[in-house]
Amino acid sequence: MDYFLELFLGGLTRGSIYALIALGYTMVYGIIELINFAHGEIYMIGAFTALIVAGVLTLMGWNEIAILVIASIVAVIYSSAYGFTIEKIAYKPIRKAPRLSALISAIGMSMFLQNYVLLAQTSDFLPFPSLIPQFEFLEPYAHIIRPSELVIYTVTASVMVALTIMIKFTSIGKAMRATSQDKTMAALVGIDVDRVISVTFIVGSATAAIGGVLIASHIGQINFYIGFIAGIKAFVAAVLGGIGSIPGAVLGALVLGWTESFFTGYVSSDYEDVFAFVFLVFILIFRPAGILGRSEAEKV
Amino acid sequence: MRVAEELKKSALVSIWFMFLTFPIMVIRVNTIYNTVEWRWLNMALVGGGSFFLSMLWRFMIRRKERGKKKAEIKDGVQLTLIQRLMQNRRVTLSGIVLAAIFAMIYPFVFSMYQTSIMITALIYVMCGLGLNIVIGLAGLLDLGYVAFYAVGAYSYALLNYHFGISFWMALPVGAALGFMFGVLLGFPVLRLRGDYLAIVTLGFGEIIRLVLENWNEFSHGPSGIANIPRPSFFGYDLSLQQVTIWIYFIMIGLVIFTIFVVGRLQNSRLGRAWVALREDEIACQAMGIDKTRTKLSAFALGATWAGMAGVMFAAKTTFINPASFTIWESVIILCVVVLGGMGSIVGVILGAMVLILLPEYLRAFSEYRMLLFGAVLVLMMVFRPGGIITNVRRTYRFKGKATTDGSSA
């Protein structure tokens, strides 16, 4: 039973991180119908920025909580700035071009960012300081759940709630929903579409950065390549839930996290990554609209 | 006034990029010795570089927009110098003759090392031309192309290891297996829309690589297979140098064969169906083109060439392991096609030569190879989506009567 619980909670942790990344994919896809391949890289850059800031502050002898807060804030700011800039360079000039162009540009961006971090920093795995303090009340359950996991659950849940409130009730959220339905119409009623797209990229990147910081301090090491696989898996989650739908992304991420966790726990851990891809292929073939997505007839 | 504004804009961009790259470019924390390295020089480089690049960027964007307007006013196709030269028969013919002579004497003039690099470039030409069918003609973004390349390479290596099959037997077998895998993988995924197709093919590519890496009994796992024999020359024993030259000529032969087949395909009924399908699926179906079969044939034919190139690769390097077949290999081949010009044969050849030979000769830049490839993909898409040599559509023009309606041309 303990093993089951451990796998269940492990799956929840994975799922939460996938959810934080998948939100960015799904929001961007909902608005400009583009798979932002570089999104995984933004998550990686978030983790790296946090590592660097934490490293510098540790050497300056700051206290742990302050480091955690400042490193996370800086990581979020930088990731958002990267997301914003990527959109301006690689996607905005070709918004009207065929879909294929935007995809190729996105892949190029992803490759560029990976190698940029590789060259400017290092190709080795870097140890990530465990920024999250020990909680005393968790001591008795130490064999099943770690404090970092508890932090991941709470942070993910609050980000979800905040995002839902933002999209449902604020004016920029309303503008986002309008833009995702019809860009031309949104522009006609006075919505600044460019600004909405920028905000979408910024918000998506910020959640990815939070995911990056959390998972890095949970696992304890990062390198320049972590964004790629995480990005692909988060994409699988977004598709599984129904791309374009925010609750769908969360649901998909949790389902993927649990299935992966149980698969590696009970069947085989060699084929962990294969499993995610096979899963993706099956979803796309049998239910391309995802769990919560509505299947739309293609417009002629 | 304009100048001052431009300078101000560039200065802002430069400050923005200095801010953006600050933690990653400037600070490096050494966690073992607990030291921080501040690399301020990098910041200066980023600042200066982005200042000029942003000016260039805006200039290029303006030029592109002006070009678009001009094309709209003048109507019809604007041919660049290269394209006009290519339509001139005499120029093309002498170009082909020159290229043929150069290809013939190349291995005798240059060293073995250079011949060997050229072989690599030619393998990429072959892959590029194969992928060109899938991406350039049929417009399907295939990110798992390297999987078929791996299938070819492993089919030769394993068949040779277990049954002692020779290179010449393996070449058609590799092609056939590539084709089979193309059909097998293509069949379930080709119903998907463009961007899903990209991810699923990427997934298939990774699945094949991970299986090769983990299934030790079948593929010898991450350590790979060594001692794959080089192609034989009618039973004679060749020295390493001779065998390199021999492989070079086999490659030239295969590339010519590929060019011939792709060129014929391009203007065949099937080739036109691919191009039409790329432009508008619904209109195609209305015209009676079988969507699935046409797409599948593009996918499988592309895979066939990857299979053959894979056999060549195994024969050339005599050692293969799964690390040679990562997704980034697919992206490099994609880069070859995109840089050269999607759909254009000369373009793809040129793209492969530039991308594979340049980094070899500019050793100083070889570290930045993948970084530059990424940048090339983005920049080509933004500024020149047609590639260096844009494929010219066959068009019919009405002669004689002046038409007032420009759009009908």
Which key terms come to mind for this protein?
heterodimer, A: 300 residues, mainly alpha, ABC transporter involved in vitamin B12 uptake, BtuC, two-stranded antiparallel sheet, 74% helix, globular, B: 409 residues, two-stranded antiparallel ribbon, 16 helices, 73% helix, 2% strand
The oligomeric state is heterodimer
Largest sheet of chain B: 2 strands, antiparallel
| Cα shape of chain A | globular
Number of domains of chain B: 2
Q: Uncertain runs of chain B with pLDDT below 50, 5 residues or more?
A: 403-409
- The outline of chain B comes out as globular
Strand content of chain A: under 5%
Q: Bin the strand percentage of chain B.
A: under 5%
**CATH fold field value of chain A:** ABC transporter involved in vitamin B12 uptake, BtuC
> What would the average pLDDT of chain A be, to the nearest integer?
85
Helix content of chain B: over 70%
Question: How are the secondary structure elements laid out?
Answer:
The complex is a heterodimer of chains A (300) and B (409).
Chain A lengths: L1 H31 L6 H21 L4 H28 L7 H22 L5 E2 L19 H23 L1 H11 L1 H6 L4 H27 L1 E2 L3 H16 L4 H22 L4 H15 L14
Antiparallel strand pairs in A: 1-2
Chain B lengths: L1 H25 E4 L4 E4 L1 H35 L6 H7 L1 H21 L2 H26 L7 H19 L3 H23 L4 H21 L1 H4 L20 H27 L2 H11 L1 H6 L4 H27 L9 H14 L4 H17 L7 H15 L26
Antiparallel strand pairs in B: 1-2
Helix pairs in contact in B: 1-2, 4-10, 5-10, 5-13, 5-14, 5-15, 6-7, 6-8, 6-13, 7-13, 11-13, 14-15, 14-16
What does this entry look like structurally?
The complex is a heterodimer of chains A (300) and B (409). Chain A has 300 residues and is an all-alpha fold. In chain A, 74% of the residues lie in helices and 1% in strands. In chain A, strands 1-2 form a two-stranded antiparallel sheet. In chain A, helix 3 (64-91) packs across helix 8 (193-219). Chain A starts with a helix and ends in a 14-residue tail after the last helix. In chain A, 51% of the residues are buried. With 409 residues, chain B is mostly helical. Chain B folds into two domains: 2-74, no CATH class; 85-383, no CATH class. Chain B is built from 16 helices and two strands. In chain B, helix 5 (112-137) runs antiparallel to helix 15 and helix 6 (145-163) runs parallel beside helix 8. The longest helix of chain B is centred in the N-terminal third of the chain and has 35 residues, at 40-74. Classes of the chains: A mainly alpha (300), B mainly alpha (409). Chains A and B meet through helix 2, helix 3, helix 4, strand 1 and helix 9 of A and helix 1, strand 1, helix 8, helix 14 and helix 16 of B.
